[in-house]
Sequence to fold (556 residues):
Amino acid sequence: MSAVTLTARRVLPPLVGFGSFVLILVAVEILIRAGAINRFIVPPPSEVAASFGRVIAEENIWRRFAFTAWECFAAGVLLTVFGVLIGALLHRVRVLRLACETWVAAMASAPLVLLYPLLLVMFGRNALTIIMMAFISGLAPVILKTIEGLSSTRRVLLNVGRSFKLTPSQQFWKILFPSALPAIFVGIRLGLIFALINVVGVEFLINFGGLGQLINELAERYDLPGTYAAICFVVLVSVVFFATTERAERWLRSAG
Amino acid sequence: MAQGLAQGLAQGSANASTSNRVTPLAQAKAAVLTVEDLEMRFATGDGGIAALDKVSFGVMPGELLALIGPSGCGKSTLFNIIGGLLSGYRGRVAVDGETVSGPHASIGMVFQEESTFPWRTVIDNVAFPLEVAGMSRRERIAHARRFVSLVGLDGFENSFPSELSGGMRQRVSMARTLASEPKILLMDEPFAALDEQTRLLLGDKVLQIQQQLNQTMLLITHNITEAVQLADRILVMTYRPGRVKRVVDINLPRPRTSEIVSSEAFGRYVAQIWGDLREEASRGLIDDEARALHARGRGE
Fold:
């Protein structure tokens, strides 16, 4: 296969992705201008693009971005540490796993955001409430995927470890954990998605903190292009976290 | 017990006749690996299955002993018992006369299934046992390189297993086990998943490694060609419960290559072993069919 073909294979998917995105925006723009979509519900993409400069200059966007990202990071660290620990414990102790796995799965589908008034009473109207809400919401997928990853480690790999007389701790860190890492990281990414939704949602609801509060304020002012521009920054937080987790996974896999 | 061991060490005649010559007990004592009167039963709903019955044999230093039998003769059970992965058996497994139970540094295992660590490069896979033993990174990489080279994978040190073919991955597994420098290399159908041509060529590689390291090997297989191509001696096993049916000396010239498969002598050995195995394999087939009918009768 020639170098040109190889480059085309590498470049084509992101190009098609970006092209499709631009096409959708152009289509939405045309539909709004033609009156097929109400511009008081969905602002034209050109107006959203034009509002970026204003939002950045007037709304202190980078401080808010950093605040939301920090809350998300804190929740991410908590749910990774506790999620993986609880998952490993449930994998190790069969009785506990049988007793709790259904409850954890039920927790994943429960509307946990409704707990926010309770957390407000417990921690007050501050970042801790938002972080704890995000942590609780993102915990279940990390636990479930950790159990799945550890349980699906191929028997023969464990036998290789046994044949080399690995200690239980070596067996975990050198075989079970690296083998389970892809599944664990799927759980962490899912957990981070839930965490980010809850961070922005609770910021919006309690009118406190970073991008969620800004979206709330812009929506109340009925500044729709600005609201959509702020939502784009929420997407940016998500992109940053996804890229970070991918790097972390690669690093951990190579260190395993 | 000694009688069982002596029978196990019996050597078949060179021209593939049915008479056996019994090795004196003194020679039996020189075996690196000794298996004595091994018995294993598995509990089932129907009262249990005898997987192995009074299996005895010895593997001499530098010898490549192949153990061949039909499906259900307890080959994998034997592999797991000798490797220390299975307990609850009766009898004795000894290395240099010392009884062993559980995994032992003297016995290195190469598994039938693909067993490389996909998250490690070739060199890190091969260096794995050295890392576990606490060797420094620089030292273990230098040591592992020797074994990567031995299995003919120079230039692939930094590749990941997913970038290699099935045969190359099995060579990585073999190099990883060899890197721990075991006295006995125990292999359970290591090339079972590969095509016939690759299997023959990898057989050459095994012969070359065995000669180079004077490595004692115990090969468990169901493939007659592979067994005759590689082994100094072949133990033919019966269908369930697994017993040693016959011991055949393979008096083909060494050093050997896969070209030997076209020789007349090779064909005679294959025919003789198939003659022994055919009856056992047929029993296995009939047993399988009877069990399937029984299960259907019970509506399973």
